[in-house]
Design brief:
single chain; mainly alpha
């Protein structure tokens, strides 16, 4: 195997591991967000969105201070576009989680990888192979089984509309990250995600915030949720520097699967036969897409 081909294979392997790690971070983040927005916890979707961006921006500034040269913005318009769309995703998805069952919100939101693939056909002229399309569809079917738990039908309402809107903005963000990775590093992209996204979510955080006194544990969980989001975003942005939007879409289907598996021990949710079957189908789809979905280059 030529050295260049071997190096590319290693980069792709690392990028897939990064997306898997991103799924773990985002899965834990979603569970904590659900717990923190339950009645009596004190946080609203707007609170968590603002906290996520503030903690992320502070962590980014600390990283820039410790690693000179890490902050290297180039395409400001693309960075700001990614930040604005990402801010809309955060507040809309947190709103959906607070106003409808997490499973139904996940089904609606998780159409974003498919939307992202369709967008990439026009934005980057990417041509996914038939194997990759089959992998995306199989993994998506598995996710529907996991999150639907064998129930047909969804009650939209305000939460459902918010989840679908979040999916559209998430697909836009995925393509913006892919485009930005040609000139920007992952840390710079994430910093502008926080910087431009914060004004989007601030109007939704005007309700009284939980007090620090006597609720430090709740605030600690909220900060941990924000740090998990920080790790998930960095890993995902880094992976988009190597993988196409269509291949990343297959691996992004792991996110709700990880969330489902973590929710069983952490939230006490029950795993059904449909859910376990969905896990197997999704994993099979991801494996199939990884093995056969890549278009070989000369």
């Amino acid at each position: 195997m030529p050295a260049a081909t071997a190096a590319l294979s290693r980069r792709r392997l690392v990028a897939r591991a990064e997306l898997a790690g991103s799924a773990v971070c985002f899965g834990l983040m979603a569970i904590l967000a659900r717990k923190l927005t339950l009645p009596g916890a004190g946080f609203t979707a707007g609170h968590l969105a603002v906290l996520r961006f503030v903690v992320g921006a502070l962590a980014s500034l600390a990283a820039f201070r410790l690693l000179p040269g890490l902050y290297r913005p180039s395409n400001y318009r693309l960075l700001v576009t990614r930040g604005l769309s990402g801010g809309a995703v955060v507040v809309l998805y947190f709103y959906a989680l607070a106003h409808m069952p997490a499973g139904e919100a996940g089904i609606l939101y998780n159409v974003f990888p498919v939307i992202a693939v369709v967008m990439s056909l026009f934005l980057f002229q990417e041509r996914p192979t038939i194997h990759l399309w089959l992998a995306v569809l199989a993994a998506s079917l598995g996710v529907v089984l996991v999150l639907g738990q064998g129930h047909a039908g969804l009650s939209l309402g305000r939460g459902g509309v918010a989840a679908l809107a979040a999916a559209v903005f998430a697909a836009t963000s995925a393509n913006a990250i892919r485009a930005a990775r040609h000139t920007e590093n992952a840390a710079t992209i994430f910093f502008y995600f926080c910087l431009a996204g914060l004004p989007v979510v601030l109007p939704f955080a005007l309700d009284p915030w939980p007090r620090l006194g006597g609720a430090f544990g709740i605030w600690g969980l909220a900060v941990l949720m924000s740090l998990l989001a920080y790790g998930g975003q960095l890993l995902m942005s880094e992976a988009y520097g190597t993988l196409s939007v269509s291949e990343a879409a297959v691996w992004l289907q792991l996110l709700p699967i990880v969330q489902f598996l973590l929710a069983v021990p952490l939230l006490g949710e029950r795993a059904t036969a449909f859910g376990l079957a969905g896990v197997l189908i999704t994993v099979a789809g991801v494996t199939y897409g990884t093995l056969f979905g890549h278009r070989r280059r000369a």
